[in-house]
Amino acid sequence: MSWQEYVDNNLVGTQQFSQGAIVGLQGGVWAASKGFDVSHAEILALANGFKNPDTVRTNSPLVDGKKYMVVKADERSIYGKLGKGGFCAVKTNQAIVIGVYGEGVQPGSAASVVEKLADYLIANSY
């Protein structure tokens, strides 16, 4: 399966997310849903947030140019809220899986989807 298929089928295709991406820890976009533009700087800020969660707690991260309030940050996961939606970002060995959800989606359900995809990628050495 291609990286784009993971985004299309395992993130956006679950109906939990309006947008999603898999990006490299070093800053490159491996695959993203149409119109979802995660910048190099945004990726590096998230990657740094996994190393030092206080950085994203005090300096809310941008994802696709939108500033989110962080509700959870640790060495594996960063969750943010914006209005009635939010994002989930989970680190694997080589990548970050990002899903953005909108109003009507339960944050816990959305987080479960991203966490499971990240676990699958980790189990397959990514």
Automatic annotation (TrEMBL):
Gene3D superfamilies (UniProt xref) = Dynein light chain 2a, cytoplasmic (3.30.450.30)
Give me the segments passing through the membrane.
Answer: none
Chief location bin: cytoplasm
Its localization reads: Cytoplasm, Cytoskeleton
Where is the secretion signal located?
none
Against PANTHER family, the record matches this protein to:
PROFILIN
Q: Name one GO molecular function term.
A: actin monomer binding
The record's InterPro entries line, in alphabetical order, gives: PFN, PFN_euk, PFN_sf, Profilin_CS
Question: PROSITE patterns from the entry?
Answer: PROFILIN
The protein depicted here goes by the name Profilin
Q: Which organism is it from?
A: Acrasis kona
Q: Which CDD domains match?
A: PROF (cd00148)
Keywords, ordered alphabetically: Actin-binding, Cytoplasm, Cytoskeleton
